[in-house]
From TrEMBL:
<dbReference type="GO" id="GO:0004674">
    <property type="term" value="F:protein serine/threonine kinase activity"/>
</dbReference>
<feature type="compositionally biased region" description="Polar residues">
    <location>
        <begin position="302"/>
        <end position="317"/>
    </location>
</feature>
<keyword id="KW-0418">Kinase</keyword>
<dbReference type="InterPro" id="IPR011009">
    <property type="entry name" value="Kinase-like_dom_sf"/>
</dbReference>
<feature type="region of interest" description="Disordered">
    <location>
        <begin position="281"/>
        <end position="317"/>
    </location>
</feature>
<dbReference type="Pfam" id="PF00069">
    <property type="entry name" value="Pkinase"/>
</dbReference>
<keyword id="KW-0547">Nucleotide-binding</keyword>
<dbReference type="InterPro" id="IPR017441">
    <property type="entry name" value="Protein_kinase_ATP_BS"/>
</dbReference>
<feature type="domain" description="Protein kinase">
    <location>
        <begin position="11"/>
        <end position="274"/>
    </location>
</feature>
<keyword id="KW-0067">ATP-binding</keyword>
<dbReference type="InterPro" id="IPR000719">
    <property type="entry name" value="Prot_kinase_dom"/>
</dbReference>
<protein>
    <recommendedName>
        <fullName>non-specific serine/threonine protein kinase</fullName>
        <ecNumber>2.7.11.1</ecNumber>
    </recommendedName>
</protein>
<keyword id="KW-0723">Serine/threonine-protein kinase</keyword>
<dbReference type="InterPro" id="IPR008271">
    <property type="entry name" value="Ser/Thr_kinase_AS"/>
</dbReference>
<keyword id="KW-0808">Transferase</keyword>
<feature type="binding site">
    <location>
        <position position="40"/>
    </location>
    <ligand>
        <name>ATP</name>
    </ligand>
</feature>
């Protein structure tokens, strides 16, 4: 590839940012939307696999469902002259690799804050059923304003699935030896806990100034990782709080069952560590925990407050709690399928699900919900014979802090699967879906905006259990959730 070349009649290559074993990364200009993007070219290297384009499409669509400040967004994908390409958000900043080379080891607070930003990205990705498989300092970018951005979500997983069997002599597609989990270099592919192992390796490297395992070549590193326990962090950096060394030790367990089992669990521990670090640095002035998506520097910052004239704040009192104020009439998802609202209503929160879930909502002063049902509309990309339906519910809470707590409960698995799934009643209005809908393949997505929490669940009319429709349901539920909220009120 060369500068000035036009990819897919849209993306103009400006300058090469890097080159690796699987292809190149270019800075490019999107001539349609007039913005700078990063364009990644993946070279199949002559391997003939009939399902390669379909796998590539599936992984890219799945990765596009992750919408989070700590994740570099995936905008587009395609094939140009037999080369697979991905179009991503262009993030300006330094890789964590470059920062480590310049100034490692890091101060404790900075290292934990960066790990927390990466963990927040993992939470969002794992919630969307996307595993990275190659978390390492080179895939983490630190921006000039202190934001942590993880890149290549879904891409590393695609590369591993597509190439590890065909190119078994190469270790790179299975993960980076210094940071990849042991199981990734055996016959297993790994799971979410493999990403957590890599997070532990990065935290170790930030605090110790070196990764936990080293060797004269990649095979030696992997062999040590398979045969030996990770060295204790305090052997390289004495004096760290025991909570830090314990967390790193658990993340680097060879057996995935002995590691923390979710990114949410790890994030809670990292947040507690940040709070104790802040208290230790300012013993006479209590400081609130830092924002989860920002990398703390070594200076003390006042807690962020929303602008008093922002719509998010104003909507607290001015948005009517009605379907027309909170739900759009139509939305188009990320795969260009249009959905239209076919039923809506305001219901009591006790109708949201079983009595214990209703009690949890009422305990948080949520007494009502707005519910709506959307149906896939016929069109060039639609499947009208088996349309996708989306059940959407919007809950309102007294303030953002209460909503954040409720979002954890509703959105992170605590009660999400038990929420009522709504359908359109014949003659108008809403009706709970029959039990067989609960047994079909579904996808749900949740979103919080200020004091509003939206949960959307998508399923197909034929109630299939075929998991291959996951990307399409994911695209519908995500867009339904992010489209709902007080931004729809214009009165």
């Amino acid at each position: 590839m060369e500068r000035g070349k036009l990819i897919a009649d849209r993306y103009e290559l400006i300058g090469r940012l890097g080159r690796g074993g699987m292809g190149e990364v270019w800075a490019a200009r999107d001539r349609v939307l007039h913005r700078e993007v990063a364009l990644k070219l993946l070279d199949p290297d002559g391997i003939a696999q009939a399902d390669l384009p379909r796998r590539f499409e599936r992984e890219a669509v799945a990765a596009a469902q992750i919408v989070h400040p700590n994740v570099a967004a995936l905008y587009d994908r395609g094939i140009h002259d037999d080369v697979l390409f991905l179009v991503m958000e262009k993030v300006d900043g330094q890789t964590l690799t470059a920062r480590l080379q310049a100034e490692s080891p890091f101060p404790l607070t900075r290292a934990v804050a960066i790990a927390s930003g990466v963990c927040a990205a993992l939470e969002a990705a794992h919630r969307a059923q996307v595993i990275h498989y190659d978390i390492k300092p080179h895939n983490v970018i630190l921006t000039g304003d202190g934001l942590v951005k993880v890149i290549d979500f879904g891409i590393a997983g695609f590369v591993q699935a597509a190439f590890t069997v065909a190119r078994s002599s190469q270790l790179a597609p299975a993960g980076t030896p210094e940071f990849g989990a042991p199981e990734q270099f055996l016959t297993e592919r790994g799971d979410e806990r493999s990403d957590l192992y890599a997070l532990g390796g990065m935290l170790f490297a930030m605090l110790a100034g070196r990764p936990p395992f080293t060797g004269h070549n990649s095979i030696a590193v992997v062999r040590r990782k398979l045969d030996e326990e990770a060295p204790p962090l305090d052997a390289f950096r004495p004096g760290l709080p025991p909570e830090v060394t314990a967390l790193v030790t658990e993340l680097l367990e060879r057996d995935p069952d002995r590691r923390p089992q979710s990114a949410e669990q790890v994030q809670q521990r990292l947040q507690a560590l940040l709070a104790s670090c802040a208290a230790a640095e300012a013993p006479t002035a209590a400081m609130p925990p830092p924002p989860r998506t920002r990398m703390m520097d070594d200076t003390r910052q006042a807690p962020w407050q929303p602008s008093p004239d922002s719509w998010k704040s104003a909507s607290t009192d001015e948005t009517p709690f009605t379907a027309d104020a909170l739900l759009p009439r139509r939305f188009t998802n990320d795969v260009d399928i249009e959905f239209a609202r076919i039923a809506e209503d305001t219901r009591l929160s006790r109708e949201a699900g079983p009595s214990d879930l209703a009690r949890e909502l009422e305990r948080r002063d949520c007494t009502e919900m707005v519910a709506g049902v959307y149906a896939e509309q016929p069109g060039p990309h639609a499947t009208p014979e088996n349309p996708v339906y989306v059940s959407v519910q919007v809950f309102v809470f007294p303030d953002a802090a209460t909503a954040r707590d409720a979002h954890k409960y509703l959105g992170d698995g605590g009660g999400a699967w038990r929420l009522t799934i709504w359908s359109a009643r014949d003659g108008g209005g809403l009706a709970p879906c029959p039990d067989k809908v609960h047994r079909s393949f579904q996808w749900r997505y949740s979103q919080r905006v200020h004091r509003y929490v939206t949960v959307a669940l998508a399923y197909r009319a034929d109630l299939t259990n075929d998991g291959s429709i996951r990307p399409w349901l994911a695209a519908a539920s995500r867009k339904a959730a992010v489209s709902a909220g007080p931004q729809n009120h214009h009165g």
